[in-house]
Write a structure and sequence with these properties.
The protein is α/β, with parallel strands linked by helices. It has 2 domains: about 140 residues, Beta Barrel (Lyase, Ornithine Decarboxylase, Chain A, domain 1), CATH 2.40.37; about 260 residues, Alpha-Beta Barrel (TIM Barrel). Helices cover about 30% and strands about 25% of the residues. Strands 1, 10, 11, 12, 13, 14, 15, 16 and 17 form a 9-stranded mixed β-sheet that branches. Strands 2-3-4-5-6-7-8-9 form an 8-stranded parallel beta barrel, surrounded by 7 helices. Helix 8 runs parallel beside helix 9. The chain is elongated. The structure holds pyridoxal-5'-phosphate (PLP). The site of pyridoxal-5'-phosphate has 15 residues, from helix 11.
């Protein structure tokens, strides 16, 4: 990406208006390749299923496709988008799949991982209508992510996760599917945790392996450990005590390669990274409109909004840089507040800002690639454009939304 300075941001602002996102496709490709490489160095049959839900900007997904990734999708919308982008290989997860989309995905050769019993009924109906077709499916195993201290590591501290089938139910499901001649070719163990700890993958893989060997799942071609990894942190975030891609590869592969069933069957291992490959791929640039002081509290008002950079409204200040026309060494403390006329629209809380900052300057927020653009509906403002800069070439991958875009889905307007 070209050197980011005031003049560069100002030039883009003049051309596209503010706020806007910057996308760095080279960083994305580097993340995906590095993640895959550390696995492949230990075991050759590795598939990366890029998690669409994390960020499905088509220009980004196309990079994943060209790098040989599968699309990992969890809804009809994501499935259709993956096909439109040109993915031939799709892993279809998620808890709700209507008959029409499950059947279409099976017709088109997707790896469909079932989450619930109603989907088993749907598969049986599909098979009964096509008795001569080889029908294959995957199953999601509900993982017990309780650590050795008895603490549940499931996201948000939940006692149990709701996805997939418990082992007991799976025994019956496998029996029924086999009875109808459906082959089970995939086992899915994705389990989101809050800490993204390496040890969680030991628990996931061990439970998957024990099911595979106990139930003789020897047709498994996709041993899918899911996503939920750490990685791709923006510069400025302290990652010294965080796991690296290679730590996950070590625990997953060391556990698998020790296992007799795994050594016999040698399935593909699937990883489904999202955050860990895309978080540092996007930044967000907005313009400062004014500085304010109210009852001793200093504010910088910008045309950006917190809903564009952290729609979950968490309290962490993301890495950021101010770009001022006039350079100053001195700083003062202020909060950066957004354009949506909501008190909670606080993008940065009590951070150091240059003394010289004034209207017309810029702020760039980094690390906004994951669960941002996909979670941002049209709220008060038009959706912002996305500009990708690769090898000094600038490409507008999304234009600013217009009123016609907003009204297109409404009748009688
Ligand atoms: C099935 C599945 N795979 C992959 C992911 C990606 O997770 P992350 O973005 O945390 O890596 C998720 C996220 O919830 C998921 O549900």
């Amino acid at each position: 990406m070209e050197r980011i300075d005031f003049d560069c941001l100002n030039r883009l602002a003049y051309k596209y208006g503010t706020p806007y996102y910057l996308m760095d496709g080279d960083v994305f490709l580097h993340n995906i390749t590095s993640f895959k490489d550390v696995f492949v160095s230990k075991y050759p049959k590795i598939i990366v299923g890029y998690s669409f839900k994390t960020n499905y900007v088509p220009a980004l997904c196309r990079i994943a496709k060209d790098a040989g990734c599968y699309a990992e999708v969890v809804s009809e919308m994501e499935y259709d988008l993956a096909k439109k982008i040109g993915f031939k290989s799709v892993i279809f997860n998620g808890p709700i799949k209507h008959d029409s989309i499950i059947w279409k995905a099976l017709d088109e050769g997707a790896v469909v991982n079932l989450d619930s019993l109603y989907e088993v009924d749907s598969i049986i109906k599909y098979k009964q209508k096509r008795p001569n077709k080889e029908v294959t499916v995957g199953l999601r195993l509900n993982i017990d992510l309780t650590d050795s201290d008895g603490i549940s590591k499931i996201q948000c501290g939940l006692r149990v996760g709701r996805f997939g089938f418990t082992k007991n139910v799976l025994v019956d499901v496998i029996h029924v599917l086999r009875k109808y001649g459906v082959r089970i070719v995939s086992l899915h163990g994705h389990t989101s945790s809050s800490d993204r700890a390496v040890a969680n993958y030991g628990l996931i893989v061990t439970q998957m392996l024990s099911l595979c060997s106990e139930l003789h799942l020897d047709d498994i071609d996709y041993f899918d450990v899911g996503g939920g990894f750490f990685g791709a942190a923006a510069k400025g975030i302290d990652v010294s005590d965080k796991p690296k891609y290679s730590d996950y590869a070590d625990i997953i592969l060391d556990t698998c390669l020790e296992n007799e069933w795994f050594r016999k069957v040698q399935p593909n291992i699937v990883i489904e990274p999202g955050v860990s490959v895309v978080a540092n791929v996007f930044s967000y640039v907005s313009k400062i409109f004014q500085t304010k002081e109210i009852a001793g509290q200093k504010f910088l008002s910008t045309d950006g909004t917190v809903f564009d950079v952290k729609p979950t409204l968490h309290n962490n200040n993301l890495p950021h840089t101010f770009f001022t026309k006039t350079v100053a060494d001195d700083t003062y403390v202020a909060s950066l507040v957004g354009s949506t006329c909501m008190e909670k629209d606080v993008i940065l809380s009590n951070v150091r800002v240059p003394n010289s900052i004034k209207g017309g300057d810029y702020v760039k927020i980094d690390g906004v690639g994951a669960y941002t653009i996909v979670l941002t509906p049209t709220f008060i403002n038009y959706l912002s454009p996305i500009v990708s800069i690769e090898n000094s070439e600038e490409i507008l991958v999304r234009r600013r939304q217009t009123l016609s875009d907003v009204t297109a889905v409404y009748n009688n307007i």
